[in-house]
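Structure in, sequence out. Go:
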């Protein structure tokens, strides 16, 4: 199984409390996800994020095909980080770390995703042709939406 990594860093002109309040509320995920993904939360308990929380979604990543996706919040350190992992869905492996660090001018937000696709060599081809580009587009969109929500001036999205 080939595991891929996607990492982004974004500066947010807000307090750590403001960032944490927004990003630790699963209901806000839809606000920063492209509409083209057909992203819809179908079940969660309307609680602020906590370890063990299960969130269910429907997504349409391509060709209008609706897929179910279930993630679990596996770790949370208040105002520092949280980790979500796929339990059921389109990936054979999905591990997403979200880090928040106060800076003199706001918050540095770092996302690190490790993922793998099923189907061996076919999964590698699908990653090269579709998934890698789609994840880039999703994180670019998220950067723009976070800017609109928090930043008066454009932020600097650093790509790795």
């Amino acid at each position: 199984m080939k595991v891929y990594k996607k990492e982004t860093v974004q500066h947010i002109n807000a307090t750590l409390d403001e960032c944490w309040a927004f990003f630790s509320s699963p209901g806000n995920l839809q606000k920063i996800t492209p509409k083209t993904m057909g992203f819809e939360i179908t079940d969660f308990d309307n609680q602020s994020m906590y370890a063990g929380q299960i969130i269910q979604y429907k997504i349409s990543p391509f060709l209008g095909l609706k897929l179910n996706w279930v993630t679990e919040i596996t770790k949370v350190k208040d105002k520092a980080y949280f980790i979500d992992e796929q339990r059921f869905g389109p990936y054979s492996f999905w591990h997403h770390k979200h880090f928040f660090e106060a800076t003199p001018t706001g918050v540095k937000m770092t996302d690190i995703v490790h993922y793998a696709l099923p189907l061996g060599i076919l999964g590698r081809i699908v990653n090269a042709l579709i998934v890698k580009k789609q994840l880039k587009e999703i994180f670019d969109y998220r950067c723009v939406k976070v800017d609109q929500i928090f930043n008066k001036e454009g932020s600097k999205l650093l790509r790795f």
